[in-house]
Amino acid sequence: MLSRQQFRQQIRHTRQQLSASFQHQASLNLIKQFAHLPELPSANHIALYLTADGEIDTQPLIEWLWQQGKHVYLPVIHPFSKGHLLFLHYQPGTPMVLNQYRIAEPKLNQLLIRPINQLDIICTPLVGFDSTGHRLGMGGGYYDRTLAPWFRDHRGPKPIGLAHDCQHVDKLPVEAWDVPLSKIVTPSKIWQWECHG
């Protein structure tokens, strides 16, 4: 089996080769799948993320959620708690800054922070996922730490992964701290597994 780092490099390379027109169509198909989530009608506070590194484009989904009257939140790297995320309310016109990874995030404003346990859905980025719902992240562990309390007691926000179909592999090498997902949405389908843990 490939190592985690080899999987990461291979899948990122595949993702980065996708054409702009393919990416655009994939982002529209993602909305169609997302709209079928049974959690969506009652979810008013949804965390998303801005796309980087060939990830599936989330901007059309964000704009569609705004049209549905949903509140959207974006992750901000916690300034004091190393390796953790805050989620800030995101609207058109929200002041943005680049974080240490050169990814745009809302400028830190305490008035815009929403506690994680008050979010309904947290959409997580991922590099790859396998047939049991394990996700391979970028290696920073931010989402594993953020999702760990949900994984323990299944309360709080519902974590849902977003990915291109080409990011699926049969089996990933798994570490003890990895938080598997019970749902991942791709342009072609909603993947679901029994709740882990």
UniProtKB/TrEMBL annotation:
<dbReference type="InterPro" id="IPR037171">
    <property type="entry name" value="NagB/RpiA_transferase-like"/>
</dbReference>
<dbReference type="GO" id="GO:0030272">
    <property type="term" value="F:5-formyltetrahydrofolate cyclo-ligase activity"/>
</dbReference>
<dbReference type="GO" id="GO:0009396">
    <property type="term" value="P:folic acid-containing compound biosynthetic process"/>
</dbReference>
<protein>
    <recommendedName>
        <fullName>5-formyltetrahydrofolate cyclo-ligase</fullName>
        <ecNumber>6.3.3.2</ecNumber>
    </recommendedName>
</protein>
<keyword id="KW-0436">Ligase</keyword>
<dbReference type="InterPro" id="IPR002698">
    <property type="entry name" value="FTHF_cligase"/>
</dbReference>
<feature type="binding site">
    <location>
        <position position="55"/>
    </location>
    <ligand>
        <name>substrate</name>
    </ligand>
</feature>
<feature type="binding site">
    <location>
        <begin position="4"/>
        <end position="8"/>
    </location>
    <ligand>
        <name>ATP</name>
    </ligand>
</feature>
<dbReference type="GO" id="GO:0046872">
    <property type="term" value="F:metal ion binding"/>
</dbReference>
<dbReference type="Pfam" id="PF01812">
    <property type="entry name" value="5-FTHF_cyc-lig"/>
</dbReference>
<feature type="binding site">
    <location>
        <position position="50"/>
    </location>
    <ligand>
        <name>substrate</name>
    </ligand>
</feature>
<comment type="similarity">
    <text>Belongs to the 5-formyltetrahydrofolate cyclo-ligase family.</text>
</comment>
<keyword id="KW-0479">Metal-binding</keyword>
<dbReference type="GO" id="GO:0005524">
    <property type="term" value="F:ATP binding"/>
</dbReference>
<keyword id="KW-0460">Magnesium</keyword>
<feature type="binding site">
    <location>
        <begin position="135"/>
        <end position="143"/>
    </location>
    <ligand>
        <name>ATP</name>
    </ligand>
</feature>
<keyword id="KW-0067">ATP-binding</keyword>
<dbReference type="GO" id="GO:0035999">
    <property type="term" value="P:tetrahydrofolate interconversion"/>
</dbReference>
<keyword id="KW-0547">Nucleotide-binding</keyword>
<dbReference type="InterPro" id="IPR024185">
    <property type="entry name" value="FTHF_cligase-like_sf"/>
</dbReference>
